Amino acid sequence: MAPEDCPGTDTDCASRTCDEGVCGVAYAAQGTATTDQSAGDCKQSVCDGMGEITSVSDATDVLDDENPCTADLCDGDAPINTNAAAGTACSAGVGKVCDGEGACVECIQAADCASNVCVSNTCVAASCMDAVKNGSETDIDCGGPDCTPCNDASPCALPSDCKSGVCTGGVCVPPACTDTVKNGEETDVDCGGPSCSPCGPEKGCSVDGDCVGGTCSGSVCVPTCTDGVKNANETDADCGGPLCNKCADTKTCSIDTDCTSDVCKSGVCAAPACNDGKLNGTEIGLDCGGPTCGPCGDGLPCTGNADCTSGVCTGNVCQAPVCGDGVKNGAEQCDDGNQDDTDGCVTGCKTATCGDGFQQAGVEACDDGNQINTDGCVAGCQVATCGDGYQQTGVEQCDDGNQAAGDCCAAGCMIEAGCEIEPNNTCATAPAAVAAPVTFRGSIRPVGDQDFYAFTVPATADLKIETFDGTGSTCASIDTVIEFRGSTCTTVLATDDESGINSCSMLTSTVNTPLRRVAPGTYYVRVEDYQNNGQIPSYTVQISFNALCGDGVKAGSEQCDDGNVANGDGCASNCVIEGKPEVEPNDTCAAATGPFPVPVGAEGLLLSGAITPIGDDDWYAFTLPGTADVWIETFDANGPGTCASTVDTVIQLYSDCATPVGPEQDQGGISNCSRINPSVNTYARRLPAGTYRVKVIDYQDNSTIPAYKLQVKITALCGNGVKEGTEECDGGPSCTATCDILREVVCNDGIDDDNDGSIDCADSECALGCGLATPCAAGEKLVVYNSKDTPLAIPDWDFTSSTINAGVTGTIQRAAVRLNISHLWIEDVDVELTSPAGTLIDLTSDNGGDGANYVSTVLDDTCANPITAGMPPFTGCYSPEAPLATLNGQASAGAWKLVVSDDEEYVSGTLNNWSLAICVAP
């Protein structure tokens, strides 16, 4: 017998039963909703637990009156519909705002309307009479294409918006006589009327006073000779032609008679000139005489002696000159009325001068008829003596203008030892080369003198060239310029005016590149006075070494100095570190040159290569002895410290032939050379011991690089006992083998791993693992790692990566990740996790729309909500886009890499930190 065989009928609240052949009734639980409900009555039909149906209040069963301006509510078990507050947004036909009385209307205030005019809850179109600035008006009911122009001081956009026709700075301004608009009481543009200046010819007028010429005819100003305008037959304004006065200089003309100067040249009145063929201006004769022109020739008119070339005007006629007439004229230099050759005027009416062969009594000590200062009669017609500053040929070796010793010219005018020997004012006359370091002594005389010295450099060197005064240590009262010249003496390699003491000169390798790494050979120095307008009685020029290759002291621009100039011993003959040469072919990773161990030290490993032909790739392999921060940089052929314009590299670091450690690095080094710097490029930090590869290419692969150097050096090495670089520690009981400070890693072993007094879940470092929705199974280790190389910048349209080195061994049973990322447009961000086995998991990509940030976002397969359905800032637990269960069974120990990418432009962000929790089976 079945329940349906029992008498009665089943209801929502009672159903028939049959228990061992006995019929009965089972009652539904009290509060069970029935299937028969009345919508909108604020009540729900439920079972009373005794098989009967009753009703209870249901505040969610509201009566929808389909009015957007009422609120549908329940008052107990009675439905009510209350009016929404005025101003509440709504949408019904043209209505968009509630009026507070249950109606959805177009407006309740002016601000609700585009025209700012609301009448009877209806928006009224803009008009030029609504007392509101709207539509295309520039001010209230004026301006724009539809309304009348505005009054002065009203806002405007165009001149047509203003009654004055002038809009300046967005404001209508009153009419003015300078606004280039005919307005106000003007009779034409900016002229006429009671306020503006009179108008010129052909301009509009009302009365004669509106015109410059004073004549208004038929509302137009008539041309006159006083109207300030060129018109009618005038050749320029109010002058020239048959009716007006002649024109002044520089005015326009047609013929000579148009000009006061009677000279019309190329259509312009020329000023009176002393060569115009016209008797004009203040001339006495044609083009001569008067205060402006030169004197007149013999026989021409004159008014005084000054008008005549001869200086003699008799009877208003210029007379011919005669030597001895007491008047200096003609070709005479003087005329004292006598023929005495010992006074100031000698034979031929010439002024007595030193060198004319006539000795002036009481003035000259000698006069040998020349200006040569190397014979017995020198400048000033003085008898030559030692110390007068003039070297007598065949008599004196030098003459520096004094009899003092110590200035290269001793008493008796003999050259002192170690000093210049003139002439040495050209490359060809420079004295024989002397080995540096050396000091030369010399003088600059006469004015314009220059001194050349030759010296030899025995080995590659950094030079210093400096001038001093005659003391050799100070610089008083001299001003030099020096040049450093090449081995042919014709090429100027460097020049300096006053980089030394006071106005002395100095060229030094610490400042001047051409003085660095100077090759062995002969070189020249030129010394001269600044501006070549003075003499220097005595100076010294010192040539010394800032660094000399082979002396055993590494200095200046030297990369090394092993005490010799031999090649092949690691330090080349020019004191450049000898790099290990590439072995071609090495254009694939498999054919990489090396591997070479990276020595610990400032120089590290230096490699040399060339990019040839175009498109060549160079690969090198190197090994690290332990966990290390690595610096990699390219240079030109000279090695560290230089990068010539012919070198433009791109480098990339690989952990193996398939896995780049970081992105391509274009620049970052000197000039266009490349540099991977662990203080900037985080992927070059804490690299585990092992073999790595570096690829070197030309930027854009469109040219060759004849020679370059590649340097790999260790900036921090774990295990050397020195905390450096990005190491957290180096040695000691609380320091790991990878130079990390011990942390609470295993979070369910009951051991205080980091000795901080907090065990397992009581330690904040275990927060991710201890908060998992599903804990690790019995027998599994709960292992939690927190990032140590963060925060890291997420570049715009680029990526960053962070690595966690996991030390606990075992197999993965389950994994979870926690993210903290700041980014204003989080949809641009993709996050991927790569396990030590190389498995890549897409954690989250392009989620969150235009929201911002991941904040304490836990990604765990056991979380109910998928990350794709979440909303920023995603705080809480979500399942990742790709399951982390894919990692189950893999080894847990090794490098875990998190890559965060920005796949759009304009916004960058920050990876603040991340954590990894793993359930590990032994």
From TrEMBL:
GO terms for molecular function: metalloendopeptidase activity; serine-type endopeptidase activity. Keywords: Disulfide bond, Hydrolase, Protease, Repeat, Signal. The keyword Protein transport does not apply. Residues 774-922 form the P/Homo B domain. InterPro entries: Galactose-bd-like_sf (IPR008979), Myxo_disulph_rpt (IPR011936), P_dom (IPR002884), PAPPA/PAPPA2 (IPR043543), Peptidase_C_arc/bac (IPR007280). GO terms for cellular component: extracellular space. GO terms for biological process: cell surface receptor signaling pathway; proteolysis. This is DUF4215 domain-containing protein.
